[in-house]
Task: inverse folding
């Protein structure tokens, strides 16, 4: 079985085309979806300020794994193999001959019409992975940058409800959406190749037009991280990077 979030973001100007452990010196030109994990992912890091956004429904706060008795916190035994993580089927990449359980437009608020069909609350509250974990690190890759989002448990909407001590499916979905809503400042844009920046600006224009058409509202101007994905902003699933235990966001064209 599989299933929440907060974010510490590390942006690195790098390429999406990866051969071995060293990134290519030039940017690739087409797809923005991540390469398959048969080749190691080179993830050089350049720290950016963490955005101070809160959850769409309620503020999200980290929960220490030491407070969760059922979450593994003890150091591993010598020569012990790490326990495998089984991600929930709703977050898995579906087989090629199988339709996804839902579609999720990463540019749209999950509380609205971004997810079709809607995911039942009982499913959203399930653990994102088994055994449960207190944090999931998800790498997002684009033509301009790649960065990591640390997703942690969120506070319950009901104050009488006990906070969960593990990441849920809902935390993952909302965590990715909130991170991709972060705006790109001038410094970020100055580090982008001119052609890649123009592509992101076009994606921003199309996003604003699409949201106005679908949601009947005017989206404020300005580039966001989701614009770095261009047309590839449909959630496809998460894939484990065996090198570091992080999850990699896979996306496809909307």
Result:
């Amino acid at each position: 079985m599989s299933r929440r979030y907060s974010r510490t973001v590390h942006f690195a100007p790098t390429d999406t085309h990866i051969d071995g452990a060293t990134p290519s010196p030039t940017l690739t030109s087409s797809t923005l979806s991540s390469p398959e994990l048969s080749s190691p992912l080179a993830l050089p890091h350049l720290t950016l300020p963490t955005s101070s956004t809160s959850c769409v429904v309620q503020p999200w706060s980290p929960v220490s794994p030491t407070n969760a008795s059922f979450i593994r916190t003890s150091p591993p035994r010598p020569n012990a193999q790490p326990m495998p993580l089984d991600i929930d089927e709703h977050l898995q990449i579906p087989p090629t001959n199988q339709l996804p359980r839902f579609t999720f437009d990463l540019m749209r608020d999950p509380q609205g019409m971004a997810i079709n069909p809607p995911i039942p609350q009982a499913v959203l509250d399930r653990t994102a992975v088994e055994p449960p974990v207190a944090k999931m690190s998800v790498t997002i890759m684009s033509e301009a940058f790649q960065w990591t989002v640390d997703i942690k448990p969120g506070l319950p909407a009901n104050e009488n409800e006990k906070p969960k001590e593990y990441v849920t499916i809902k935390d993952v979905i909302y965590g990715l959406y909130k991170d991709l809503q972060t705006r790109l400042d001038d410094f970020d844009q100055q580090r982008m190749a001119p052609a890649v920046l123009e592509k992101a600006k076009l994606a921003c224009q199309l996003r604003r037009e699409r949201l106005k058409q679908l949601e009947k509202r005017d989206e404020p101007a300005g580039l966001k991280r989701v614009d770095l994905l261009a047309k590839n902003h449909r959630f496809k699933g998460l894939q484990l990077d065996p090198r570091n235990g992080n999850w990699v966001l896979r996306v496809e064209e909307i």
Summary: Confidence is low (pLDDT under 50) at residues 1-80. The CA atoms of residues 75 and 81 lie 12 Å apart. The longest helix spans residues 194-215.
